[in-house]
Amino acid sequence: MTFLHMRFPEGKTKAVTLSYDDGVRQDLRLAELTGARGMKCTFNINSALVAKTPGGGKLTYEELRTEILGKGHEVAIHGEYHLAPGTSRTLVGLRDALNGRLQLEEHLGCIIRGMAYPNSGVTRFTGGSDYETVRRYLRDIGIVYARSLGGDNNRFALPEDWYCWIPTAHHDHPDVLDWAREFVDMKINELYLDARYPRLFYLWGHSYEFDRNRNWAHMEELCDLLCGKADVWYATNMAVYDYVTAFRSLVFSAAGTICYNPTLLDLFFETDSGVFRVRPGETIRI
Ligand SMILES: [Zn+2]
After folding, report:
1. pLDDT tens digits, residue range 23-77?
2. Domain covering 10-248, topology
3. Distance of CA 43 from the midpoint of ligand 1 (Å)
4. How is the chain split into domains, by residue range?
5. Separation of 22 CA from ligand 1 center, angstroms?
6. pTM for the predicted model, two decimal places
7. Contact, 286 vs 270, CB < 8 A?
8. Distance between CA atoms of 68 and 105, rounded to whole angstroms?
9. Ligand 1 centroid to 283 CA: how many Å?
10. Dist. CA 24 → ligand 1 center (Å)
């Protein structure tokens, strides 16, 4: 065996995920737009800013339950009051993230472990905290990934650090349509062996920007480009995290010819010999 690369569910080589912030009313239209195309979006919500009554600028917990979670999208933490950990004292940043988690879980009745950093996030530190401290307290309070920003690129890479998950692009990045075309046109299994690792296209933004910039049509064009591809898995941020970390729990013999799956997910990888599926609890020969 000269190579072994992770594959997404059903052996797919690529994944697409989206992340949209602040729990605004336009999220309902975005959830509909993406859901109709079989895509999954993570919506990042400030727990203290959720609306008490429907019809205003922000969503209610009932709307989050039925229109977001109920439609297969994800709700993630965006702080209690939208405070950037980098510009907050350690205790304030920690409290904002923890209260955000406690309140979302209490109102939505499910476990929430994902996060998108509010504001400048961890891109600059002026509040007396530092990145290692933030990463440690997020891990301590049960948050497993946090989306950052500021590094748009077309590497389509999985995150090296789950607490500094850099998306592919904001939806208004001038190159985003070109990058989306490059992504969907990419034939992973025609690349040289070492380059056949899985690719992720990760889009982020705020859905109110589509109203402000009158460019819902741009988002439709982008989603039309990305949706419905046989080699692409459409997943929330948390589903990507769960799958990748489960994959990293696979146990291999020293020669790499036996593989045991100790997780509860069906896992896939590809070697010179083809695509393999390992079911939960199963041991296979490669
Ligand atoms: Zn925000």
Report:
1. 999 999 999 999 999 999 999 999 999 999 999 999 999 999 999 999 999 999 9
2. TIM Barrel (3.20.20)
3. 10
4. 10-248, 251-286
5. 5
6. 0.97
7. no
8. 14
9. 44
10. 10
